[in-house]
Amino acid sequence: MSSDYRHNHYVPVWYQKRFLPATTATNELFYLDLKPGTFRDPRGYEHRRRAVKRTGIRNSFAQDDLYTTHFGGHESTELEQLFFGTIDSRGRHAVEYFSTYNHQSADGAQLDSLIAYMCVQKLRTPKGLGWLAQQAGTTNSDDTLKTMLRFQQLFAAIWAECIWLIADASNSATKFIISDHPITVYNRRCGPRSSWCRGYNDADIAYSATHTIFPLSLDKVLLLTNLTWVRDPYQHETVPRPNPDPWRAAMFNVMAIQSQRHLTELEVEQINFIIKNRALRYVGAADEEWLYPERQVSKDDWSGYGDGYLLMPDPRAVNFGGEIFIGHRDGTVSHFDAYGRRPWQKDYDKEGRVNTEFRTLHRFKGECARRYGPYRRGRRWEDREDRDSDEMHQYYLSLDPRGKKQRRQQ
């Protein structure tokens, strides 16, 4: 059997290259081992291994025979050669497309490719495979890989119904790092020491307050936030979002993508701190200093980064409602509410009928106007202006803490 596909990169080489400066003369990262261990010298003395090395990207985030499967006495590298080859090829173009996204197009094929790549990327790492093995109750690597193939769309529906924000670190001297588990999740309630985040576990992406973090390049990061959390950031963080079932169709609203959020250096360091703390063992960066965000960020502040709103899109760019109607050639119409439920499901458009999220969304809009001023921290295509008009800003300021418009003083 050829050895060409036995050195398996669970973080692809093409993705690692996106985190090298354009001016670099080498394809090397500063590679930090969070668990370097020790060794004994010839005299029997024990020494701690060096934690940071300058490593070529072809030797970073890789493991021999991670994806090699076995049948009887035979071994196969087809999973690496065929399955990951296709996923990575399409994912590479999709990552580039969204890292430069400017609302000028709506390419459904690139969206499908990105979500497919992200789903597989979250499962293919040693941490993802360890989590899958726990869920499947198996210690056999072949069974774990089969489970990965069966569940390769596990996160697609939830992510498609999130609010997408593409944030920018170009104003920061510190840039994004990458880890051995590039699809990172953050829930301000579920700190690194919590029961939700032990071993291979992360906070469930279906928890209302869970954000998904996916660095796209040195300067760009994709942040996905559950719609229910944007509409109501005052609820309990670990309550499941409405309709958390992942095994269903979902609709994506490309018009709701937000961009032009420019991060401060502290915000970039906080995101890097989250990425590092959710890694299993390895972290890489173009600059050695970026590997240590804890020098600026405290783990004890986990729930308070950005006053609890570090990864939030701007609610002023989020509309209430969100029902989708699709007409078919035979004259029939398909209906989805904002959470992907169909009309025959008992909770269809529940939030629209009871108006609870309407009130909390407007409360949050008013809070953001008072906290951040008229400049939005994320804008859709129709919100291309840098700031809200004076009239609109005054309207948001007029919303009281209950989400209602204050009465004018007589």
- What would the principal axes of the Cα set say about the shape? globular
Task: Kindly report how far apart the N and C termini lie.
Answer: 85 Å
Q: Could you report the average pLDDT, rounded to the nearest whole number?
A: 91
DSSP summary, beta strand count: 17
Q: Uncertain segments of ≥5 residues (pLDDT<50)? A: none
Describe the main β-sheet briefly: 5 strands, mixed
Strand content: 15-25%
Total domain units? 2
Rg, Å, rounded: 23 Å
- Kindly report the spatial arrangement of strands forming the biggest sheet: 11-12-13-9-14
SSE ordering = EHEEEEEEEHHHHHEEEEEHEHEEEHHH
Proportion of residues in helical segments: 25-40%
The total of helices stands at 11
Structural class: alpha+beta
3D structure, described in words:
The chain has 410 residues and is an alpha+beta fold. The chain has a five-stranded mixed beta sheet with strand order 11-12-13-9-14. The chain has a four-stranded antiparallel beta sheet with strand order 5-2-15-10, with helices on one face. Helix 3 (108-124) crosses helix 4 (126-136). It folds into two domains: 7-311, no CATH class; 317-397, no CATH class. The mean pLDDT is 91. Strand 7 (69-71) and strand 8 (74-76) form a beta hairpin. The chain has helices at residues 13-17, 78-99, 108-124, 126-136, 141-150, 156-160, 227-231, 265-277, 350-354, 356-372, 390-397; strands spanning 7-9, 28-33, 38-40, 46-48, 52-56, 62-64, 69-71, 74-76, 162-168, 178-179, 184-186, 211-215, 220-226, 258-262, 282-285, 324-327, 333-336.
